Amino acid sequence: MIVAGFGFRSGAGLPSLRAAFLLAQQGYPPVTHLATVCGKLAVLAPLAEALGLPLTGVEPEALAAAATITRSAASLAAHGTGSLAEASALAAAGVGAGLLGPRHISPDRMATCALAIRASAKGHST
């Protein structure tokens, strides 16, 4: 399982989300799920539909436990984690998941995306 986790500003649209996703997934096996914090699911739903991928909502309480690479002051203040994208990916991928790298930022800086892989899937293409 490879999860693309997202964080984004209010007003982010499909082009921003898609751009962050495309940057994050370059060079990695196909993403199997998309995720973000539950309160932002409606904004991410059009991308999930366009990609034909399931969408997972992460409870806000699960974000703080995630060990993120990025330490954004804005994300810490708003969500209690250094990166909403990284924390969402890790939480949705489950116990033993690891990040494939830091978040990627869309060119317009409206959205971020990070990939996490479940430990049992490391080294496998799905």
Automatic annotation (TrEMBL):
Sequence ranges assigned to domain CobE/GbiG C-terminal in this UniProt record: 2-116
InterPro entries: CobE/GbiG_C (IPR002750), CobE/GbiG_C_sf (IPR036518)
Highest taxon of the lineage: Bacteria
Pfam entry (one): CbiG_C
Record-level GO BP terms: cobalamin biosynthetic process
Protein name as annotated: Cobalamin biosynthesis protein
